[in-house]
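>> received
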Amino acid sequence: MDTLNFKTIRYNSAEAEILDSFDAQTAGTDGFVRWVDIGSIADRDGIERLGEALGIHRLIVEDILNPNQMVKLDHYDDCLFLVLKMIDYDNETCSINTEHVSLVLKKGVVVSIAENSGDIFRRVREKITQARDNVLRQGADYLCYELLDTVVDHYFEVIDQLGDATDSIEEELIADPVKSTLQRIYFVKRELMYLRKSVYPLRELIGGLVNSDSALLSQEIRIYLHDVYDHLIQIVDSIETYQDILSNMLDTYLSSISNRTNDTMKILTIISTIFIPLTFLAGIYGMNFKNIPELSLPYGYLVFWVISAVIVVLMILFFHKKKWF
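>> returned
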Protein backbone atom coordinates (compact mmCIF):
# COMPACT_ATOMS: atom_id res chain seq x y z
CA MET A 1 0.00 0.00 0.00
CA ASP A 2 1.62 3.20 -1.16
CA THR A 3 -0.69 5.87 0.26
CA LEU A 4 -1.35 5.98 4.01
CA ASN A 5 -3.63 8.25 6.03
CA PHE A 6 -1.12 10.03 8.22
CA LYS A 7 -0.59 13.76 8.64
CA THR A 8 2.52 14.53 6.63
CA ILE A 9 4.51 17.71 6.09
CA ARG A 10 6.40 17.86 2.81
CA TYR A 11 8.89 20.63 2.20
CA ASN A 12 11.98 21.73 0.34
CA SER A 13 13.90 25.00 0.19
CA ALA A 14 11.08 26.73 -1.68
CA GLU A 15 7.81 25.51 -0.18
CA ALA A 16 6.12 23.56 2.58
CA GLU A 17 2.71 21.92 2.65
CA ILE A 18 0.66 19.72 4.96
CA LEU A 19 -0.69 16.56 3.33
CA ASP A 20 -3.45 14.23 4.45
CA SER A 21 -1.67 11.15 3.12
CA PHE A 22 1.81 9.74 2.73
CA ASP A 23 3.11 8.53 -0.62
CA ALA A 24 5.85 6.01 0.09
CA GLN A 25 6.86 5.58 -3.58
CA THR A 26 8.21 9.11 -4.01
CA ALA A 27 9.63 9.47 -0.49
CA GLY A 28 13.32 10.32 -0.52
CA THR A 29 13.57 10.50 -4.31
CA ASP A 30 11.93 13.79 -5.34
CA GLY A 31 14.05 16.30 -3.42
CA PHE A 32 11.44 16.85 -0.72
CA VAL A 33 11.77 16.16 2.99
CA ARG A 34 8.78 14.36 4.44
CA TRP A 35 7.86 14.33 8.11
CA VAL A 36 5.23 11.84 9.23
CA ASP A 37 4.10 12.82 12.74
CA ILE A 38 1.92 10.21 14.46
CA GLY A 39 0.44 11.47 17.74
CA SER A 40 -0.51 8.07 19.18
CA ILE A 41 0.40 4.39 18.95
CA ALA A 42 -3.28 3.44 19.12
CA ASP A 43 -3.45 2.83 15.34
CA ARG A 44 -1.29 -0.28 15.42
CA ASP A 45 -2.44 -1.50 12.01
CA GLY A 46 -1.67 1.83 10.39
CA ILE A 47 1.81 1.96 11.94
CA GLU A 48 2.53 -1.58 10.76
CA ARG A 49 1.39 -0.70 7.23
CA LEU A 50 3.56 2.43 7.31
CA GLY A 51 6.53 0.30 8.32
CA GLU A 52 5.90 -2.06 5.43
CA ALA A 53 5.54 0.80 2.93
CA LEU A 54 8.83 2.38 4.04
CA GLY A 55 10.66 -0.91 4.36
CA ILE A 56 11.19 -0.44 8.08
CA HIS A 57 12.46 -3.53 9.86
CA ARG A 58 9.86 -5.53 11.78
CA LEU A 59 11.85 -5.22 15.02
CA ILE A 60 11.64 -1.42 14.77
CA VAL A 61 7.86 -1.57 14.41
CA GLU A 62 7.63 -3.83 17.47
CA ASP A 63 9.73 -1.40 19.52
CA ILE A 64 7.57 1.52 18.36
CA LEU A 65 4.43 -0.22 19.58
CA ASN A 66 6.01 -1.14 22.93
CA PRO A 67 5.61 1.86 25.30
CA ASN A 68 7.89 0.23 27.89
CA GLN A 69 10.88 0.19 25.55
CA MET A 70 14.05 1.67 27.01
CA VAL A 71 15.93 4.63 25.53
CA LYS A 72 18.18 3.38 22.74
CA LEU A 73 19.75 4.05 19.35
CA ASP A 74 19.80 1.37 16.63
CA HIS A 75 21.72 1.60 13.36
CA TYR A 76 20.31 -0.10 10.29
CA ASP A 77 21.58 -0.08 6.71
CA ASP A 78 19.08 2.47 5.47
CA CYS A 79 17.80 4.15 8.66
CA LEU A 80 18.43 5.20 12.23
CA PHE A 81 15.95 4.27 14.95
CA LEU A 82 15.74 6.23 18.20
CA VAL A 83 13.63 5.60 21.29
CA LEU A 84 13.27 8.59 23.60
CA LYS A 85 11.44 9.54 26.77
CA MET A 86 9.59 12.82 26.53
CA ILE A 87 8.95 14.22 30.01
CA ASP A 88 6.49 16.83 31.20
CA TYR A 89 5.71 18.43 34.56
CA ASP A 90 2.16 18.15 35.86
CA ASN A 91 1.39 21.27 37.88
CA GLU A 92 -1.68 19.71 39.48
CA THR A 93 0.09 16.67 40.92
CA CYS A 94 3.56 18.31 40.96
CA SER A 95 5.02 15.18 39.40
CA ILE A 96 6.83 14.18 36.22
CA ASN A 97 4.96 12.43 33.44
CA THR A 98 6.85 10.33 30.88
CA GLU A 99 5.87 9.62 27.29
CA HIS A 100 7.41 7.08 24.92
CA VAL A 101 8.59 8.71 21.65
CA SER A 102 10.11 6.93 18.65
CA LEU A 103 11.99 8.52 15.74
CA VAL A 104 12.92 6.86 12.45
CA LEU A 105 15.34 8.69 10.16
CA LYS A 106 15.62 7.57 6.54
CA LYS A 107 16.82 9.36 3.44
CA GLY A 108 14.46 12.30 3.01
CA VAL A 109 11.99 10.94 5.58
CA VAL A 110 11.50 11.36 9.31
CA VAL A 111 8.80 9.45 11.19
CA SER A 112 7.92 10.48 14.75
CA ILE A 113 5.53 8.42 16.86
CA ALA A 114 4.36 9.47 20.33
CA GLU A 115 2.78 7.15 22.86
CA ASN A 116 -0.25 9.29 23.68
CA SER A 117 -2.46 11.54 21.64
CA GLY A 118 -1.01 15.03 21.66
CA ASP A 119 1.02 17.60 19.78
CA ILE A 120 4.40 17.54 21.46
CA PHE A 121 6.22 18.74 18.34
CA ARG A 122 3.97 21.69 17.58
CA ARG A 123 6.88 24.14 17.80
CA VAL A 124 8.80 22.27 15.10
CA ARG A 125 5.73 22.13 12.86
CA GLU A 126 5.29 25.89 13.18
CA LYS A 127 8.92 26.44 12.22
CA ILE A 128 8.38 24.48 9.02
CA THR A 129 4.99 25.90 8.02
CA GLN A 130 6.10 29.45 8.81
CA ALA A 131 9.54 28.95 7.22
CA ARG A 132 11.43 30.10 10.30
CA ASP A 133 15.11 29.56 11.13
CA ASN A 134 15.93 28.49 7.54
CA VAL A 135 14.59 25.05 8.40
CA LEU A 136 13.30 24.55 4.85
CA ARG A 137 16.84 24.66 3.49
CA GLN A 138 17.93 21.76 5.68
CA GLY A 139 17.56 18.04 5.16
CA ALA A 140 15.85 15.25 7.07
CA ASP A 141 18.77 14.96 9.49
CA TYR A 142 18.24 18.56 10.57
CA LEU A 143 14.55 17.83 11.18
CA CYS A 144 15.59 14.90 13.35
CA TYR A 145 17.86 17.26 15.27
CA GLU A 146 14.95 19.70 15.79
CA LEU A 147 12.81 16.93 17.24
CA LEU A 148 15.60 15.84 19.57
CA ASP A 149 16.17 19.44 20.63
CA THR A 150 12.46 19.77 21.43
CA VAL A 151 12.65 16.73 23.70
CA VAL A 152 15.67 18.17 25.51
CA ASP A 153 13.94 21.55 25.87
CA HIS A 154 11.18 19.78 27.81
CA TYR A 155 13.84 18.54 30.22
CA PHE A 156 14.90 22.15 30.79
CA GLU A 157 11.30 23.13 31.48
CA VAL A 158 10.93 20.36 34.05
CA ILE A 159 14.20 21.39 35.68
CA ASP A 160 12.89 24.97 35.97
CA GLN A 161 9.66 23.72 37.56
CA LEU A 162 11.54 21.59 40.07
CA GLY A 163 13.84 24.54 40.74
CA ASP A 164 10.82 26.72 41.57
CA ALA A 165 9.53 23.98 43.88
CA THR A 166 12.94 23.86 45.59
CA ASP A 167 12.91 27.64 46.11
CA SER A 168 9.40 27.42 47.58
CA ILE A 169 10.51 24.72 50.02
CA GLU A 170 13.52 26.81 51.01
CA GLU A 171 11.31 29.81 51.82
CA GLU A 172 9.02 27.59 53.88
CA LEU A 173 12.02 26.07 55.63
CA ILE A 174 13.29 29.47 56.68
CA ALA A 175 9.88 30.83 57.72
CA ASP A 176 8.22 27.93 59.55
CA PRO A 177 9.22 24.33 58.78
CA VAL A 178 6.46 21.81 59.43
CA LYS A 179 6.00 18.10 58.81
CA SER A 180 4.73 18.71 55.28
CA THR A 181 8.02 20.48 54.50
CA LEU A 182 9.90 17.23 55.03
CA GLN A 183 7.45 15.40 52.76
CA ARG A 184 7.94 17.99 50.01
CA ILE A 185 11.72 17.71 50.29
CA TYR A 186 11.60 13.93 49.86
CA PHE A 187 9.10 14.25 47.00
CA VAL A 188 11.24 16.70 44.99
CA LYS A 189 14.37 14.61 45.67
CA ARG A 190 12.56 11.57 44.29
CA GLU A 191 11.47 13.46 41.16
CA LEU A 192 15.02 14.71 40.61
CA MET A 193 16.35 11.19 40.94
CA TYR A 194 13.82 9.97 38.39
CA LEU A 195 14.77 12.82 36.06
CA ARG A 196 18.43 11.97 36.40
CA LYS A 197 17.76 8.35 35.46
CA SER A 198 16.00 9.62 32.34
CA VAL A 199 18.73 12.07 31.32
CA TYR A 200 21.71 9.72 31.43
CA PRO A 201 20.44 7.29 28.74
CA LEU A 202 19.41 10.23 26.56
CA ARG A 203 22.89 11.73 26.89
CA GLU A 204 24.43 8.43 25.81
CA LEU A 205 22.03 8.30 22.85
CA ILE A 206 22.99 11.79 21.65
CA GLY A 207 26.65 10.95 22.14
CA GLY A 208 26.14 7.87 19.99
CA LEU A 209 24.63 10.02 17.24
CA VAL A 210 27.51 12.49 17.37
CA ASN A 211 30.04 9.68 16.98
CA SER A 212 27.96 7.73 14.47
CA ASP A 213 29.40 7.00 11.03
CA SER A 214 25.94 6.89 9.46
CA ALA A 215 25.69 8.55 6.04
CA LEU A 216 22.26 9.86 7.06
CA LEU A 217 23.90 12.48 9.30
CA SER A 218 25.93 15.29 7.79
CA GLN A 219 28.95 16.78 9.51
CA GLU A 220 27.06 20.02 10.11
CA ILE A 221 24.27 18.19 11.90
CA ARG A 222 26.80 16.50 14.16
CA ILE A 223 27.81 19.97 15.35
CA TYR A 224 24.18 20.71 16.22
CA LEU A 225 23.87 17.37 17.97
CA HIS A 226 27.00 18.09 19.96
CA ASP A 227 25.28 21.28 21.18
CA VAL A 228 22.33 19.16 22.35
CA TYR A 229 24.81 16.89 24.14
CA ASP A 230 26.23 19.94 25.93
CA HIS A 231 22.71 20.91 26.97
CA LEU A 232 22.20 17.49 28.51
CA ILE A 233 25.45 17.86 30.46
CA GLN A 234 24.10 21.18 31.72
CA ILE A 235 20.86 19.48 32.77
CA VAL A 236 22.80 16.82 34.68
CA ASP A 237 24.79 19.53 36.46
CA SER A 238 21.56 21.33 37.39
CA ILE A 239 20.03 18.12 38.73
CA GLU A 240 23.09 17.43 40.88
CA THR A 241 23.05 21.02 42.15
CA TYR A 242 19.40 20.81 43.19
CA GLN A 243 20.00 17.42 44.80
CA ASP A 244 22.80 18.93 46.89
CA ILE A 245 20.57 21.87 47.83
CA LEU A 246 17.77 19.54 48.92
CA SER A 247 20.19 17.40 50.93
CA ASN A 248 21.37 20.53 52.73
CA MET A 249 17.76 21.58 53.23
CA LEU A 250 17.03 18.19 54.76
CA ASP A 251 19.91 18.67 57.21
CA THR A 252 18.63 22.17 57.96
CA TYR A 253 15.13 20.86 58.59
CA LEU A 254 16.38 18.18 60.97
CA SER A 255 18.57 20.74 62.77
CA SER A 256 15.62 23.14 63.02
CA ILE A 257 13.38 20.46 64.51
CA SER A 258 16.16 19.45 66.90
CA ASN A 259 16.67 23.07 67.99
CA ARG A 260 12.93 23.51 68.45
CA THR A 261 12.85 20.38 70.61
CA ASN A 262 15.82 21.63 72.63
CA ASP A 263 14.10 24.97 73.20
CA THR A 264 10.97 23.20 74.39
CA MET A 265 12.98 20.96 76.71
CA LYS A 266 14.86 24.01 78.04
CA ILE A 267 11.60 25.76 78.95
CA LEU A 268 10.22 22.64 80.61
CA THR A 269 13.49 22.14 82.51
CA ILE A 270 13.45 25.74 83.76
CA ILE A 271 9.85 25.41 84.92
CA SER A 272 10.64 22.12 86.64
CA THR A 273 13.72 23.63 88.31
CA ILE A 274 11.70 26.59 89.64
CA PHE A 275 9.16 24.27 91.22
CA ILE A 276 11.73 21.95 92.86
CA PRO A 277 12.33 24.20 95.95
CA LEU A 278 8.62 25.02 96.14
CA THR A 279 7.81 21.31 96.12
CA PHE A 280 10.42 20.79 98.83
CA LEU A 281 8.86 23.44 101.06
CA ALA A 282 5.35 22.15 100.42
CA GLY A 283 6.55 18.63 101.27
CA ILE A 284 8.11 19.77 104.55
CA TYR A 285 5.07 21.64 105.80
CA GLY A 286 2.72 18.99 104.54
CA MET A 287 4.06 16.41 107.01
CA ASN A 288 1.69 15.30 109.78
CA PHE A 289 3.88 16.25 112.79
CA LYS A 290 2.35 18.24 115.66
CA ASN A 291 5.53 20.05 116.72
CA ILE A 292 6.27 22.10 113.58
CA PRO A 293 7.01 25.58 115.02
CA GLU A 294 5.88 27.61 112.01
CA LEU A 295 2.40 26.09 112.12
CA SER A 296 1.56 28.15 115.22
CA LEU A 297 2.75 31.48 113.81
CA PRO A 298 -0.08 33.97 113.16
CA TYR A 299 1.32 34.82 109.74
CA GLY A 300 2.93 31.46 108.94
CA TYR A 301 0.86 30.91 105.78
CA LEU A 302 1.75 34.40 104.46
CA VAL A 303 5.43 33.86 105.28
CA PHE A 304 5.38 30.60 103.30
CA TRP A 305 4.08 32.39 100.19
CA VAL A 306 6.52 35.28 100.55
CA ILE A 307 9.47 32.89 100.80
CA SER A 308 8.16 30.94 97.79
CA ALA A 309 7.77 34.14 95.74
CA VAL A 310 11.28 35.29 96.67
CA ILE A 311 12.73 31.93 95.63
CA VAL A 312 10.91 32.06 92.25
CA VAL A 313 12.09 35.63 91.57
CA LEU A 314 15.70 34.85 92.50
CA MET A 315 15.77 31.78 90.27
CA ILE A 316 14.26 33.68 87.31
CA LEU A 317 16.87 36.43 87.72
CA PHE A 318 19.61 33.81 87.88
CA PHE A 319 18.40 32.07 84.70
CA HIS A 320 18.08 35.41 82.92
CA LYS A 321 21.63 36.38 83.91
CA LYS A 322 22.89 33.07 82.51
CA LYS A 323 20.91 33.84 79.31
CA TRP A 324 19.11 30.54 79.45
CA PHE A 325 15.96 32.21 78.20
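>> The mean pLDDT is 86.
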